[in-house]
Request: fold
Amino acid sequence: MATTDIDLGILAQGPKGDKGDKGDPGQTGPQGLQGQRGEQGIQGQQGIQGPAGKSFSIKKTYATVALLNANGPNDLSEGDFAIIDSTVDDVDNAKLYVWTGGKASLVTDMSGAQGVQGPQGKQGIQGAQGPQGVQGEQGATGATGMSGKSYKPYISESDGHWHLTVDDPNDVLKDPFAVTAVFSGTCDGLTTSGYYGVNSTNVNGKPNSETGLLKVINAGEIITQAMHTVSDNLYIRNKHNGVWTAWRQTTLWT
Reply:
């Protein structure tokens, strides 16, 4: 285990200063004169009540603004609302107008407003249930993960600063040729770089029925596997774009 000490450079607590002298109290100033109260203004007369407004509703829809202007005098009365209902490509689509003073006046563009929710559609017919798939094979047990680092803050007696020690249990020399034993599953799932002892004929994805030593090199875009069987034969293959190539037998001698 490796331990690292970090000086954060922050003083834990500074020295306490001396207490200052108490100041003399100031003199009380004279009280100011009270201002005079102003006179209350005369209340104005109540205004005349305006006519009752119409409740909001859209009286007519038109395909274009031109049709609105042409038919408005016959279709609409003072205070009626009309809307343009054309296509989403039309700049005038969803514009709201009010008929006032014998003409249509634009109120707002409602193209960004949420439309009225339509009725719920009928439920579709349920499809037939498909056949149950074949159960997949159990994969090989993965290696145990590394322990995490631990951090311990403390105040150093030598400088009074906050320090931090970091303990890393993974900072040890590891055996680069450590072999992971595999007794079940498939070689197709062994994609982490390392050495694997394929110790059972029950393991699938081998070049043949033999057991042996499997070496895996994962380079990100391509994964290479080399299988050295117990009969001293060597096979290689790789995985690229998610597909394994066929095993190919090679020789290391003439």
The mean pLDDT is 82. The chain has one helix and 14 strands.
